[in-house]
Amino acid sequence: MTNEPPKAPPLYPKSHLLAASGIAALLSLALLVFPSSEVEAKKTTLNLELESPAEQLKQEQDAPLTQNTDTAPSPFAQIDNSATPTEETAKAEPAPAAAEAAPASKDPSHREVTVSRGDTLSTLFTKVGLPATAVHEVLASNKQAKQFSQLKHGQVLQIELDKDGQLASLHSKLSDLETIRLTKSANGYAFNREISKPVMRSAYVHGVIKSSLSASAQRAGLNHNLTMDMARIFGYDIDFAQDIRQGDEFDVIYEQKVMNGKVVGTGNILSARFTNRGKSFTAVRYTNKQGNTNYYTADGNSMRKAFIRTPVDFARISSRFSAGRKHPILNKIRAHKGVDYAAPRGTPIKAAGDGKVLLAGRRGGYGNTVIIQHGNRYQTLYGHMQGFAKGVKTGGTVKQGQIIGYIGTTGLSTGPHLHYEFQVNGVHVDPLGQKLPMADPIAKAERQRFLQQSQPLVARMDQEKATLLASSKR
């Protein structure tokens, strides 16, 4: 029998083969374009895992060492960096800092730390490796040492360690002029305060009132304290609550405190001129031979009168002196024997002059009230106070300009304001219209000395203003 070769398996029809090939191609394309949810999840996870730690570790390994040898190892030391993030991922997500430790100082015994929000002396000591007991030793060493626990955000502490790594000294700059220091000695820690003496120089500013005194003064270069000083100096002649007008002008020569070429503070106003409604008032600071300092006009009369015109700075007059006014609460006509100054609750109220306190307490519809007797002829009343200033009590004495209380709404009051009354020989008068008595002028024996100091200051204001106006016209 002749052996025949085995028969090949029957071939599929050509139409079936073409159909199968087409289906396989479509499936492959679908898998490439639309991966399963499992594949998508793995892709997302991979990108998150490969963000920046590995790249950060590589950078740390390639970079030269700049930290102390006893610094803790990098938190990324155990990360598997077998996969490297793509360049696009590295740019999109910057690598986090490896550690917060600062580079080693040239002097290993010196440490410098900056106070962050929430920091305490204890947390700062921990950062430089000092034990918790060191904080107690420092704060218990001296009453003044407790200032080191009153830290401010951004404050810098300089710490010196001894050869054993213990605290040798601690100091911090509180301002451009003040530094506090603790130094370890055989008896514990010694506290020292260092006050730097600045160079004093004079400066000039000129301003024109456009909206308010405070805004115009700030624009001219006067800080808040100098603005308040100027208002106090001219407060006997100008009522800053009602007299200020747009176009009023002021010129001020004041002291500047300078350290290493930098202005670190201001001192006193040396001379000033305020032009209100076309009328100019000039003031010059002068200290007499007895050491008493006051402000005087250019010809030597005192700027200080027996009374100041308004007991509240920059308040708004809400009701004037009137023989017949309808009371806002009682709803009937009755005399308004004073002036009402509206201001925010808590605004300080000043004594209009030196005197004895006849009352510091409640008085009917006036609420919390202070009444002051000034000599034999004058008396002032301050009503609706929120409260009294410390030390102000019935039977005591007060000085002109002293804070005696604060704006409130006690008694019959519809809103926070001061009700201010002025009496002459027991009769109520309008405090806005009352002519104020003058204080003593420069003594004859000192007049020549005063003029030698005042005339150059007044001349400088004139010259500075002329130069300023001339330059503005160019």
Kindly summarize this structure in a few lines.
By secondary structure, the protein is an alpha+beta fold. The chain is built from nine helices and 22 strands.
Please tell me about this protein's structure:
The protein is an alpha+beta fold and 474 residues long. It folds into three domains: 110-195, Nuclear Transport Factor 2, Chain: A (Roll), CATH 3.10.450; 198-305 and 438-474, Nuclear Transport Factor 2, Chain: A (Roll); 316-429, Distorted Sandwich (Glucose Permease (Domain IIA)). The protein is built from nine helices and 22 strands. Strands 11, 14, 15, 16, 17, 18, 19, 20, 21 and 22 form a ten-stranded antiparallel β-sheet that branches. A hairpin with a 5-residue loop joins strand 2 and strand 3 (167-173). The longest helix has 26 residues, at 447-472. The radius of gyration is 40 Å and the shape is extended. The model is unreliable at 35-105 (pLDDT under 50).
